[in-house]
Amino acid sequence: MAEPLYMTAIEALAALHGAGLGDARLEGAPGARFKAASSDSRAVAGESLFVAIAGERVDGHDYLAQALASGATCLLVSEAAWPTREAALAKAIEAAGAAVLVVSSPLAALQAIATERRRSVPQILRIGITGSSGKTTTKEIAASILSVSRRVAMNPGNLNSDIGLSLSMFGMGADAEVGVFEMGMNRKGEMAELAGIYEPDIALVNNVGTAHIGILGSRDAIALEKKQIFSRFDGRQIGYVGEDEDYRAFLREGVRGEMRDFGPRSLPGFRGAQDLGLDGYAVDWEGLKVRFPLVGRHNLANALAAMALAACVGTQAEDVAAGLEAVRPLFGRSEILKGRVTVIRDCYNANPDSCEAAIEFCDALQWAGRRVYVIGSMLELGSESEAAHRRVGRACAASGAEALFFFGEESRPAFEEARASGFRGIMFFETDFDRLSMAVRAGVGEGDLVLLKASRGMALERLSELLK
C-alpha cells in the first residue's frame, strides 16, 4: 500500500494565497496536517480536512464538532459563519491539535487546495471523462482495463462535481501512474472549473444529450459546456469525441491539441461484437474473443470509449481483454437481477436518451414471458420536462411492453402520451410508492421481464426486493 500524501495547514494556506484567495487566514495549530478531505462529517476519518459547506438544506458549519470528534485535523470554514462558532469549539480544536482555515468561500478554497494536492503527484497521467450519460460506467471500464497493468487513481462512485472532483484529488496516492476521473456539471461554468482543478492530459466527451437541459436550456448550451473539458489544453494533449456525435465538428473545432474519434469504425483492432442479450457481449478485439458482461448498446459504446483511452496509452490487447471481462455493473446501472421475475435495474439516473435506450434494449431481447416497464420521473429537466416525458411516453406506447407503470408527478405527461398514442396493454399511474408497489405486485407474474427506469431521486430500486 502506498504511503499517504500529507498536506499541512501552512501548505494549504499557501495554496489559497497562490490562487489569489488573499483574505484566507490560519488559526489553531499551523503544523496540523491532513491526508484526506470530506464535506460530510460522517465520512471523516483520522487526519482529515473537513470542508464546511452551506447547502440548501444542511450547513456543514453545524457539524464541526462531530468532524473534530471523528479525527478532523483541519477545518475549512466561512468567515461569515465562523465568529458564532469559534468560542464553542475552542477547547475541541486545542485538544485535537487542529488548524482552522477561515476563508470567504470554502468551496473556492477547497478547489484551490485540491488543485495543489493534485500537483503534488506530477508523474500521474490524467484522463478526464465527461458526457451527458455513461461517464461513470466509462470511467469504471477504463479503470478496470488500466488497473491490470498500472496503478490507477479514480473518483469513487460519481463524485464528479465541483465539490466531488475536488475531494477526489486527495485519493491520488504518491505512486499513482494513471488517473481516471469523471467530470460532471449541472451549471454553466462548472466544467471550466473542473478542468482547471484536474487539467486532463487526455479528455473524452462521451456524448451530448439532454441531461440537465432544464438548467442549461438547450443541447447547444450543453455541448458548449462539455467542450470546456478541453479548455486547459495547450497543444500537447489529446481529446476524444464520438465518431457519430451530432456535435462532433463543434467539439473538435479550435481545440489546442490532437483530436481523435472513438467508436466501432475508429477503434483499431475492434472487429465487432455479438449481442448476448442479458449476458452482455462477445467482443472481437485484436483477434481475442472477450466476454464483456454489461448489457445494452449504450454500454458497448461506453466500452469502446474506454478501449480507445486504453489504446491511447499503449495498453496491451491481453490487458484490455482482462479488464473488460472484470467489469461489473454498478448499483442501479443496467443491473440484471435474475429470479422468478427478471429485473433490469437501471434507476440511478434517467433522461429521454437513456430511457429510450433502455426500452430499445428490452424490446430487442428474445423473451418468452411478458415485458413490464416501470418508468419513474426524470428530474432536472426544467421547462423541457413535459416534452421530454411525452417523448418517453410515445416510446413506451410503441414498445413491446404488455404493461406500463408510471411513477411520480413529472411522469404524468408520459402516461397521458402513452394512452393518447394508443397503447392497449395494462397502464397505471401513481405518485404514492405504496400504491405503486401494490399495483406492481398484482401486475407482475413469474417469467416476466421488468424494467425499472427513473432518476435516482425516485428511489425506484425499492421495488427490487418486492419483485425478487
Model description:
It is a single chain. The chain has 468 residues and is of the alpha/beta class. The chain has 3 domains: 7-112, Udp-n-acetylmuramoylalanyl-d-glutamate--2,6- Diaminopimelate Ligase, Chain: A, domain 1 (3-Layer(aba) Sandwich); 121-326, UDP-N-acetylmuramoyl-L-alanine:D-glutamate ligase (3-Layer(aba) Sandwich); 335-467, Protein-Tyrosine Phosphatase, Chain A (Alpha-Beta Complex), CATH 3.90.190.20. Helix content is 35%, strand content 21%. It has helices at 9-18, 64-69, 86-96, 106-119, 135-146, 164-168, 190-198, 213-216, 219-227, 248-252, 297-312, 317-326, 352-364, 385-397, 412-420, 433-443, 463-467; strands spanning 7-8, 25-28, 33-34, 36-38, 48-51, 72-78, 99-103, 125-130, 152-154, 178-182, 202-205, 238-242, 258-262, 270-275, 281-285, 288-292, 335-337, 342-346, 371-376, 403-407, 426-430, 449-453. The strands form 5 sheets. The chain has a 6-stranded parallel β-sheet. Strands 17-18-22-19-20-21 form a 6-stranded mixed β-sheet, sandwiched between helices. β17 and β18 form a beta hairpin. The mean pLDDT is 94.
Which secondary structure elements does this structure contain, and how are they paired or packed?
Elements: E1 7-8, H1 9-18, E2 25-28, E3 33-34, E4 36-38, E5 48-51, H2 64-69, E6 72-78, H3 86-96, E7 99-103, H4 106-119, E8 125-130, H5 135-146, E9 152-154, H6 164-168, E10 178-182, H7 190-198, E11 202-205, H8 213-216, H9 219-227, E12 238-242, H10 248-252, E13 258-262, E14 270-275, E15 281-285, E16 288-292, H11 297-312, H12 317-326, E17 335-337, E18 342-346, H13 352-364, E19 371-376, H14 385-397, E20 403-407, H15 412-420, E21 426-430, H16 433-443, E22 449-453, H17 463-467
Parallel strand pairs: 4-5, 5-6, 6-7, 8-10, 8-11, 9-10, 11-12, 12-13, 18-22, 19-20, 19-22, 20-21
Antiparallel strand pairs: 1-3, 2-7, 14-15, 15-16, 17-18
Helix pairs in contact: 1-4, 4-7, 5-11, 5-12, 13-14, 14-15
